[in-house]
Amino acid sequence: MATPVKKMDSARRSAPTERVVVYRGIKIAPMIGKRSKIAEAIRDGLKINSEKLRGDPGKV
Amino acid sequence: MATPARSRITPAKSVFINCPFDEGFKPLLRAMVFTIIASGYFPRCALDATDGAEVRVGKIAALIGACDWGIHDLSRVEVDAGGLPRFNMPMELGLHLGARLLGEPRHRRKRALILDARPHRYDAALSDISGQDIESHNNEPDRAIACVRNWLSEHRPHNAAPLPGAGAMQDDYRLFQAEIGALLAPRRLDPSRLTHNDFLFAVRDWIATRAAIA
């Protein structure tokens, strides 16, 4: 007898997708694929830096 | 592998890079990759490929076929200690031009930028390429940025947004290098040792961050 197929974990489908960004008037599409640990660390570090800059506009 | 999403990867936005992948050339390659991404295009090169079992020339031909744009750097085509030059780069340029001249109609819109270290070095050795877009970067990353940016700008559709100037891209690249270097220093990691994949993500993530704070 066929076993009911379990639905996929919704977390997988709802993973945040990266969006197109516009920088200096140019649309930059996201890359896909798996980031390495180093690439993740760089992204996280950039985010922290940008939050600091946004908190202190004088530094931008 | 850091590649653009399949649904978004169009030949019109893909730039094939034909160049050496040794350490000595890396500063120029990375400057070009940065410029391509900052211009809204996707850099593609043999470093994208992961299937080592595939015949190399087949991979190269597939990449060339998937890109409307091609940068062919011939600056390292020199006679080596064994008395022979490296023929890979001229061969791949030949594949690109062959696709444009003899391939399906969609390949006729292919554009090629031929780069060399010095002006007119190739006139004597490969005169058949005269009439193409040939520029010299003098082995300087700043100059490579200007060559790639100006070439992409020149051939953009008329309704496309204008690209930032070469000076802005050169400044951005210096800032990118400084910020990524500062992020990696506490981990005692050298930015020049980042893999190609990590570098692509770093460029894109840096641009996304700058866009958010602009």
Question: What key phrases describe this protein's structure?
Answer:
heterodimer; A: 60 residues; alpha+beta; 3 strands; B: alpha/beta; Rossmann fold; five-stranded parallel beta sheet
Explain this structure to me?
The complex is a heterodimer of chains A (60) and B (214). With 60 residues, chain A is α+β, with helices and mostly antiparallel strands. Chain A has one domain (18-59). In chain A, 38% of the residues lie in helices and 13% in strands. Chain A is built from 2 helices and 3 strands, in the order H-E-E-E-H. Chain A has a two-stranded antiparallel sheet. Chain A is elongated. With 214 residues, chain B is of the alpha/beta class. Chain B has a single domain (6-213), classed as Response regulator (Rossmann fold), CATH 3.40.50. Chain B is 42% helix and 12% strand. Chain B has helices at 26-38, 56-65, 88-102, 141-154, 166-184, 196-213, and strands spanning 3-4, 14-18, 42-44, 69-73, 111-116, 133-136. A 5-stranded parallel β-sheet of chain B has the order 3-2-4-5-6, sandwiched between helices. In chain B, helix 2 (56-65) crosses helix 3 and helix 4 packs across helix 5. The longest helix of chain B is centred in the last third of the chain and has 19 residues, at 166-184. The model of chain B has no long low-confidence stretch (mean pLDDT 90).
